[in-house]
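Dear Dr. H.,

I hope your travels went smoothly. While you were away I took the liberty of generating a structure for the chain from your last submission, since the lab meeting agenda had it listed for discussion. I wanted you to have the full record in hand beforehand rather than looking at slides cold. The sequence, exactly as received, is reproduced here:
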Amino acid sequence: MSTEPEPGLAPEHTKPPHIKNEPITMTVDGQDFRIRERAGRPGEYDFDWLSGPHEYGFGITRAAGAAMTLAEMEEAIRGFLAEIDPATGYLKE
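The corresponding predicted structure, in token form, is as follows:
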């Protein structure tokens, strides 16, 4: 049995998670997020900040319904957290 990846298949760690039916939870830089793909809307995601000081989060809509990889989700969360004002817990003005 070969351990070489098959041509045309992405390595397992880069494949998008299956979240169409169930949300996933991701921890990034000590912060917990629930990620859900919107029902019937491929490529549209809601990110809920579970460990934040408020009920808060953000959404992403990808062109042509493209799925996000775990790495892209992590990058989106880091970008969101970088825009949070630590004094208020909300986006910087």
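Two observations you may find useful: Residues 1-15 have pLDDT under 50 and may be disordered. Residues 15-82 form one domain.

With kind regards,
E. W.
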